[in-house]
């Protein structure tokens, strides 16, 4: 029941005074406990007791390790702060990666597509222009569908113009016919 090693040299060689610890040491029991020092500044320690046996299994002694509660609280607080800081760093890095990925895969291609559409809208008579935006996935499908729609509109527009030309011109010679003459005369007389 004597203290062999201690962080405070004055306690080396003193007897263990805490009843729970002393009883576990005498009985060779493995245990963990906590106690409050009655003397001096009344601080709490956490204690782990491990019995030591010889080669034949006979109890020889116990190793008692005591750690002040304030030290554990300090270490746990530091660990929690460090883990929280690391968590915030990784969260910030993850958010930055998410923003970069969304920008590269969604925002920038969508912005280019919108710009291409606005350029096409500014010149509605030129249906030969395409919304050229190198994209994949849903946005690429949207650009491709839009370009297919423009192609269909272009073919429909050309077909309408061809139809009007066929209706107002001779098929063999390409010269204006009576339908065009009547239309022009009606317009001229209307003024």
Cα-to-Cα separation, first versus last residue: 126 Å
Shape: rod-shaped
C-alpha Rg (nearest Å): 46 Å
Q: Please write the string of helix (H) and strand (E) elements.
A: HEEEHHH
Bin the helical content. 55-70%
Number of strands: 3
* Sequence of strands across the biggest β-sheet: 1-2-3
The structure class reads alpha+beta
Count of runs of 4 or more consecutive helical residues = 4
Average the pLDDT over all residues and give the rounded result: 83
Descriptive account of the structure:
There is one protein chain. The protein has 191 residues and is α+β, with helices and mostly antiparallel strands. It is built from four helices and three strands. The protein has a three-stranded antiparallel sheet with strand order 1-2-3. A hairpin with a 7-residue loop joins β1 and β2. The protein is rod-shaped. The chain starts with 18 loop residues before the first helix and ends with a helix.
Give the secondary structure arrangement, pairings included:
Layout (H helix, E strand, L loop, with lengths): L18 H9 L3 E6 L7 E10 L5 E10 H54 L14 H32 L9 H13 L1
Antiparallel strand pairs: 1-2, 2-3
Brief summary:
Helices cover 57% and strands 14% of the residues. The protein contains 4 helices and 3 strands.
Main attributes?
alpha+beta, single chain, 4 helices, rod-shaped, three-stranded antiparallel sheet, 191 residues, 57% helix
């Amino acid at each position: 029941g004597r203290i062999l090693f201690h962080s405070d040299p004055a306690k080396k060689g003193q007897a263990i005074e805490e009843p729970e610890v002393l009883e576990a040491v005498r009985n060779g029991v493995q245990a963990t406990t906590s106690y409050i020092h009655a003397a001096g500044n009344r601080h709490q320690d956490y204690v782990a007791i491990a019995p030591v046996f010889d080669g034949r299994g006979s109890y020889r002694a116990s190793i008692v390790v005591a750690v002040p509660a304030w030290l554990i609280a300090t270490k746990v607080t530091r660990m929690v702060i460090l883990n929280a800081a690391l968590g915030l760093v990784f969260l910030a890095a993850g958010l930055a990666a998410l923003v970069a990925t969304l920008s590269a895969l969604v925002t920038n291609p969508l912005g280019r597509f919108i710009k291409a559409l606005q350029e096409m809208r500014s010149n509605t008579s030129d249906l030969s222009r395409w919304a050229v935006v190198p994209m994949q996935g849903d946005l690429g499908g949207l650009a491709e569908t839009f370009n297919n729609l423009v192609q269909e509109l272009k073919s429909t527009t050309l077909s309408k113009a061809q139809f009007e030309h066929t209706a107002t011109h001779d098929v063999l010679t390409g010269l204006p016919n009576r339908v065009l003459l009547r239309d022009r005369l009606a317009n001229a007389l209307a003024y």
